[in-house]
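Thread: sanity check for a docking pose with zinc ion

Original post by kr_44:
Hi all, I'm comparing my docking run against an independent structure prediction. Below are the sequence and the ligand SMILES. Could someone generate the full complex and paste the structure tokens? I mainly care about where the ligand ends up relative to the chain.
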Amino acid sequence: MWKNIRILILLLVLAGVALHAWLDRHATQSWEQTLWVGIYPLNGDGTAAAQQYVAALTPRDFTDIEEFFAREAQRYGVRLSQPIHIELYPQVQELPPPLDPHASMLGIAWWSLKLRWYAAHASSVPGRAPPRIRMFVLYHDPSTLDHAPDSHGLQKGLIGVVHVFAARSMHGSNNIVIAHELLHTLGASDKYNPADGAPLFPSGYADRERQPRYPQEDAEVMAGRRALSAQEWEMPSSLRRVVIGPETALEIRWTH
Ligand SMILES: [Zn+2]
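Reply from moderator J.T.:
Ran it for you. Here is the predicted complex with zinc ion included:
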């Protein structure tokens, strides 16, 4: 009797988890309503420079991400005029749990559970409606670090942890990184070679038909860089020079 009840409870919990994942996926891939994305800025390195930068952020600093999604969605015939809305939330003090770059599968699973727990309490702001997708954006003083730590976007849990630079000159490229991780939460996959960062051909190229092929004028967002030649690539300075390629559009269900 007790054994049966325990099994029933376990099955109900599993059904609840599966239902929740299905609802999240439906809400983020149906493109019937504007998707609310919350940006939670953090001081990533504890420096005064990063703090000053975070304190000066305004919602206008993120409108180019909204415009990027609107422009690209229109190209794919998505009827929604504003696919995503970005809401800027107050600075979060507690940093998200770090992921050990050498973590095992089990280590990554444990980290993702801790991250969900962190996101649940770090993102609640009294009097503010919670967003569907939570992006924790950690700003680092570029003078203390030349290479930002790896960023992550999780489709399960709809959480992003993004490392960017606290510098006005990097504002445009920061927003490319945020858009890239946001697209991971929506189901998009990387389109670059993890060994060296080279955009994959053709899915990571903005203009695969271009003759001659190099240099590419724009970047595909999930490659993050435009190829200048077969051996060189660079990140554009703003989302105006970035597109969503057909493979990414299919992954996020803009096309079928
Ligand atoms: Zn990625």
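The chain has a mean pLDDT of 94. Hope that helps with the comparison, let us know if your pose agrees.
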